[in-house]
Amino acid sequence: MKVSLFITCLSDAIYPRVGEAMVRILARYGIKLDFPKVQTCCGQPAYNSGYFDEARAAARTILDAFEDSDFVVSPSGSCTYMVHHYSNLFQDEPLMLEKAKRLEAKTYEFTQFLVHVMGIKDIGAVFPHKVTYHPSCHGSRLLGVKSEPMDLLQEVRGIDFVPLPFAEDCCGFGGTFAVKMPDISGAMVTEKAEHVVETEAEVLVGLDMACLMNIAGQLRYRNKPVRVMHLAELLYEGVKSS
């Protein structure tokens, strides 16, 4: 089967190690990820700001990039869910609407793909550290990714998992929200960072680098030595050391 990597903007430009971890984990199971180089932004910033024509232009590029893929896998629940909005964008264009529905049906967030498509929960990782987990809003509330990361984390040997207080609360990033309402956003991420520190965890893990970047910045500002990682990074580091 042809499995393609939808890398997303932040992972491509700022956190390439997340994509590398995904590629190396899936390679252990015989999957060589295809990478369509024409892929670009999914259009979410434009869509959330009401610029639907610009969002449609970005969506067309994504639809073309992954048209021949059997599965599409992404490290971001937020960008993965944006694909679900394509049906709204193309509701008046029957051919594009059909393409949008096909892409939606075959696009998965990384942990969804591992657990539901590959049927894998235990990849043999060892990670002897105290870890807490932040469930990003789009991934957990809209895409419905809740049990999958927990299924994977509970199989990691040596891990000391500590629940994050008020985990479901937003970190305050919200894309353009952080720009338009910086004071509210700053208050929210300050509260989130306080809860992370409260756990005394060595590592904060999550599924969306936008949210993790926001929280990591606040933790650095407070001089808190908490390592922030995407779950794919934690799992790959765990199998390398096992």
Automatic annotation (TrEMBL):
Question: A cellular component term (GO) from this record?
Answer: cytosol
Source domain of life is: Bacteria
MF annotations from Gene Ontology:
oxidoreductase activity
Q: Which parts pass through the membrane?
A: none
Q: Which residues form the Cysteine-rich domain?
A: 3-83, 131-215
Q: Which Pfam families match?
A: CCG
InterPro entries assigned to the protein according to its UniProt record, in alphabetical order: Cys_rich_dom
For this UniProt entry, which residues form the secretion signal?
Answer: none
Give the PANTHER family listed for this entry: LACTATE UTILIZATION PROTEIN A (PTHR30296:SF0), UNCHARACTERIZED PROTEIN YKGE (PTHR30296)
From the Swiss-Prot or TrEMBL record, give the protein name. Answer: (Fe-S)-binding protein
Q: Which organism is it from?
A: Paenibacillus urinalis
